[in-house]
Design a protein that fits this description.
The chain is of the alpha/beta class. The protein has one domain: Vaccinia Virus protein VP39 (Rossmann fold, 3-Layer(aba) Sandwich). The chain is 36% helix and 24% strand. It is built from 8 helices and 8 strands. The chain has an 8-stranded mixed β-sheet with strand order 3-2-1-4-5-7-6-8. Helix 1 packs parallel to helix 2. The longest helix is centred in the first third of the chain and has 13 residues.
Length: 223
């Protein structure tokens, strides 16, 4: 599991959620993490919850399908093997939560390999486009949660205001306390609630996970 996916899956706010959209689900890691968390906290039955993973890359989508079917939460998980653009055009569903670990390499450095290009280039999905998806598919009180490099994350916060979406929580992630911020976990909502700003350091001395990181992600690692 990649650290970005683990962070997003462990951090995204699933409170009062019955429907989730995971954009660019890959092999389904984040969707599975959210399914586990929702099964532990939801008041609704599994049959009343829905987690949809959208994945454009056929091999990854098929892998996610197999992972979903083999999981304890198979009844609430589904995969849509298509681009998010096609999903938005054809979907009548609305979601309480939309999550994404979007690509952040620009078209100027697109990989010649199609699989890597689809998974890692903003040609396939730009962070800005996530705001359009949120506008189209979020329930009125819904949330958009993403993880991005700091520069792109700051830009998205500024851009979101133009679409009446507001960053209501930011968690700055550093690999070590003396390192610069490498990622931002960001939550966007339609109403400008009280803004929360937090920080997470992943590693302490000796390449050991910090207590804060273990507290956030411990449920997803073998002890």
């Amino acid at each position: 599991m990649g650290t970005d996916s683990v962070l997003l899956g462990a951090w995204a706010d699933v409170s009062n959620c019955r429907s989730v959209l995971d954009i660019g689900t890959g092999t389904g890691v984040v969707a599975l993490m959210l399914a586990q968390r929702m099964s532990q906290t939801a008041t609704a039955s599994e049959a009343e919850t829905r987690i949809t993973g959208v994945e454009i890359h056929p091999a990854s989508a098929e892998c996610a399908r197999r992972n979903f079917e083999a999981s304890p939460w198979a009844a609430s998980l589904e995969i849509a093997g298509m681009s998010v653009q096609d999903f938005v055009r054809n979907s009548t569903l609305r979601f309480d939560l939309i999550v994404s670990n979007p690509p952040f390499f620009s078209e100027k450095i697109v990989s010649p390999d199609e699989s890597r290009r689809l998974g890692r280039s903003t040609v396939a999905l730009s962070p800005d486009y996530l705001l359009s998806v949120a506008k189209a598919l979020l329930e009125p009180g819904g949330r958009l949660c993403v993880i991005l490099p700091e520069r792109q994350g700051r830009r998205l916060c500024e851009r979101a205001v133009l679409d009446n979406m507001y960053c209501t929580e930011e968690m700055a992630v550093r690999s070590r306390s003396h390192k610069p911020v490498e990622r931002l976990l960001l939550r966007f909502e339609r109403n400008p609630y009280l803004f929360q700003k937090k920080e997470l350091v992943v590693f302490g001395e000796g390449n050991v996970y910090t207590s804060d990181y273990k507290e956030l992600t411990g449920a997803f690692y073998l002890q």
